[in-house]
């Protein structure tokens, strides 16, 4: 598990699912333990196997249960080290951000706000770190002018800010299931450099919409795309929860995805903000 590719594709939740399967000996019991449906466990394990490129679980029919392959056992050993590192990181957060003496103010781009912020806030709450979400149209400016302590955004243009990459979020196409007419309308978020690259790659492959509508609400874009034939949304995967009737097609093999950075002012408590950024990195996933 040393490939640089894993930094951007490994999902902590998938590792937790593998651990539950190993501990319980079956997908069904693992699902009960984790509060999932059994099919979700199967999806998580299959996704993890695609990421590492090896079969990790031997699936046996009937009551014979499951067991880890040798590769699965090796991954689980490394996973325990990752879980230990995350626990250590969270323990450090219990003290470090208190230097701010007020809630940690976070601003976030629409491409991560739906799927990244809720689990991050839960982890910070468990570490006794109070959080305030800052509403803004420009995350970087919010940090520069002091309205936010930490921001998660898709670009860094100021040399006065400290910034680290926390991951890449793959793009997906969202549409109504079933046969499709020619794409007449594409819904997307305001264009970034990465999104423009993806749109150009899709155009080469024949997806040339008659109209492109750029919205600030990813959930609305996904809902509109599933409302009619010929409607498609192009969105970063962490920007929204898929509608129940949506067909979601990953573009991870077409493009590496949207880079997301954590950034903060250098004169702030760097170690505290960096620990929060590193925790966010563990939560930045590419599932589904």
Please render the helix and strand layout as text:
Elements: H1 4-9, H2 12-24, H3 27-34, H4 38-52, E1 57-59, E2 66-68, H5 70-93, E3 104-108, H6 117-126, E4 131-133, H7 139-144, E5 150-153, E6 161-169, E7 171-175, E8 185-188, H8 193-204, E9 211-214, H9 218-225, E10 231-236, E11 247-250, E12 258-265, H10 270-283
Parallel strand pairs: 3-4, 3-5, 8-9, 8-10
Antiparallel strand pairs: 1-2, 5-12, 6-12, 7-10, 7-11
Helix pairs in contact: 2-3, 2-4, 2-5, 3-4, 5-10, 6-10
**Under the CATH scheme, which class of the largest domain?**
Alpha Beta
Strand order, largest beta sheet: 4-3-5-12-6
In whole angstroms, the N-to-C terminal distance is: 21 Å
Number of domains: 3
The general outline is flat
What are the secondary-structure elements, in order, as H or E? HHHHEEHEHEHEEEEHEHEEEH
In terms of structural class, how would the helical and strand content be classed?
alpha/beta
CATH homologous superfamily of the largest domain, by name? Periplasmic binding protein-like II
The total of helices stands at 10
Contiguous runs where pLDDT drops below 50 for at least 5 residues: none
Instruction: Give the % helix.
Output: 40-55%
Query: The biggest beta sheet, please?
Result: 5 strands, mixed
Average the pLDDT over all residues and give the rounded result.
Answer: 82
User: What is the number of beta strands?
Assistant: 12
Which band does the percent of strand residues land in?
A: 15-25%
**Gross CATH architecture of the largest domain:** 3-Layer(aba) Sandwich
Calculate Rg over CA atoms: 20 Å
